[in-house]
User: What shape does this take?
Amino acid sequence: MKKPAISLPLRPAKGSLVVRDLTVRYGNLSVLQGISTEIRPGRLTGILGPNGAGKSTLLKALLGLVPKEGGEVRYGGQALRGEQVAYVPQRSAIDWSFPATVWDVVLMGQVRAAGWLRRIGPQGQQRAAQALERVGMWAYRNRPIGKLSGGQQQRVFLARALAQEAEIYALDEPFAGIDQPSEAILFQVLRELADAGHIVIVVHHDLGQALAYFDEVLLLNRVLIAQGSPQQVLQPQVLQRAYGRILPLDSAA
Amino acid sequence: MEGLWHSLADPLRFAFMQRALLVAVAIGILCAVVGSYLLVQSLALLGDAISHSLLPGLAIAYLLDLNLFVGAFVAGVLSALLIQWIRSATPLKPDAAMGIVFSAFFALGILLITLIQRRARIDLNHFLFGNILGVSTADVLTVVGITVLVLGLVALFFKELTFYSFDPLGAKAAGLPTAGLGWGLMALTSLTLVASMKAVGVLLVLAMLITPPATAYLLVPRLHQVMLLGSLFGVSASLLGMYASYYLNVASGPAIVLVASAWFGLAFLARVIFGPS
Assistant: This one.
């Protein structure tokens, strides 16, 4: 296949993701309680909070990946459908020794679009190739995924998400432990997606970076502590309610 | 060289050797392809659990004069359902659930077969260790039928099964019916084990599922290549094992498994000596 020109057709979100009174339990343990929020398109939205606050669980519950105890999630007034969503799991959730090349993984982004019993056609392959090119990983397409750095692996997964042509992009800790060039590319792509009118939701652990990255943040600790612009939310008094102690922004991780 | 050819071709004038040959080729491919999915999902132990659980199904089918393959398949699926039920309804870990279920099924199978042996002459060893030289024409038809069916389904759903195996959450988020794919894979695994039990026996069939794909996994980097190269290892192992069974008069299961293990040993040594490919 020849090197693709970069022009990713994008499919903007149809409306907000509206969450009403969402509650999630694991066994007897209540993980999330009474979360109500609206996540709007066109903005980079970060989910922040201490370890064990339920950030990843919230992201999964929004997408219907974990069972809800109560409440509902609506997108444009309707239930969310799979083809509207691209999800990037935490890197630690993936078995990187799986026998697959970069190209194999990015093509997975086109599995749903191709449909049952159909091969991924030239158009789908083109789309996947453009996505790889966009994250600067085209040259690595034949490399086994286990032989990439953490940042490169994250870029491949972002490319897979791009290849899904979704309306909602949901990423779990994409910036954790990656190199600076990968971080820059990741942020740039997410920024473009948001600017193009998508819903972009990112679970993030670093409060300091959050100021620069996000248009909107949700501060979480089992319940939704605060939501708003990073400047509004990342105030010592507000953070104390989530973290239970006062912590300066630059040392928070 | 001519002597070797002769000793390979000569036995094939017997109808039972021709039947054995067909079964050997079929299960060599079938086990490697389905086993590749078990391998990458770390489900080797589940394959072992289901294969041991086939035994009571065989015995009950024999008692009721039903088709042995159907009985074994039902028992295999039942054990997988039971394991999943115990896992979801208790805090027990998967390995404990599997250990409990498969040893219980296996014990029941042995018990039933020893009861049957009081009034009929059946050889327990054939169930446990396989007898590829003793397969009937009906067996061959069943094995080839299952092989065509399972390989066809894997080919049709390859991209979905692979996405699901690699990243179940991502696949679910993209709207794939992951629960259905998971159970489908269990059904394909049960079918594969059922098809292989006459040749390799329920105790050793795990080796045919795991060892050839694991050998290939050491050598090639993509899943479909693991399946193809694994099939080559699987077919050659079952063929050589079949001849060993013929010439040395040993049970076919252990012979086949030892050849597969030898391939793995070579690939493993190559990796240790020359480093990863």
User: Anything to note?
Assistant: Chain A has a mean pLDDT of 91.
